[in-house]
Write a structure and sequence with these properties.
two-stranded antiparallel ribbon; 18% strand
Length: 193
């Protein structure tokens, strides 16, 4: 029950897993309050969460550039979106019944939303990372089994919250000015080793 996902079963050789949405949040350049509010309104708003089908897994991956390689990064949140007990939901699974009481669904929904709210607090606004491994993280997301972003899910979606600037040893689309500490975009790209 800790991840709020139904038990996976196989029917005619097919998994009963639902979808998986990964939200990759790049906090290496830090967020201003306005950017954080915009992210909150566009992605973590309760109306947006309700639009995700019941039992789809929602995972949040923080790319902070703090002494961790892309292959070592883990989700800071990963749970299935529970049924919410809203009768006018477009998803029939959200509707309550005798066997699935609305009160229990609403309690699970509140636990889920509070978990996301606590996770958002861990996304640092003032962070300044040492490097950005955005492309490496996308590659590792598709490769590492315990991140569970494989084709066993009925659908997969990747949402990227980033300034889309890459800065790492192998691939650099930024140039750091040593005298000013500023970052500027450049077309200089070093070959990957």
């Amino acid at each position: 029950f800790t991840d709020m996902c139904p038990k996976e079963e196989f029917v005619d050789g097919q998994s009963t897993k639902f979808g998986h949405t990964v939200i990759l949040v790049d906090t290496t350049s830090g967020f201003g309050p306005e950017q954080f509010t915009l992210m909150d309104r566009l992605i973590f708003n309760e109306r947006k969460l309700i639009s995700i089908p019941p039992y789809d897994r929602i995972s949040i991956l923080n790319l902070d550039g703090q002494e961790i390689q892309a292959s070592e990064n883990r989700y800071i949140f990963s749970k299935c979106r529970p049924r919410n007990g809203i009768d006018n939901s477009s998803y029939k699974l959200d509707h309550g019944s005798f066997w699935h009481p609305v009160a229990k669904m609403k309690r699970n929904w509140r636990l889920f939303v509070s978990g996301i709210d606590k996770t958002k607090e861990n996304l640092s606004i003032d962070n300044e990372g040492q490097f950005t491994q955005l492309l490496e993280q996308i590659k590792e997301l598709s490769r590492i089994p315990d991140l569970m972003f494989d084709d066993s899910y009925t659908s997969r979606k990747l949402i990227i919250v980033s300034d889309l600037l890459q800065f790492s040893d192998n691939l650099e689309t930024l140039r750091r000015e040593a005298t000013k500490g500023a970052i500027s975009a450049t077309s200089e790209i070093r070959p990957m080793l």
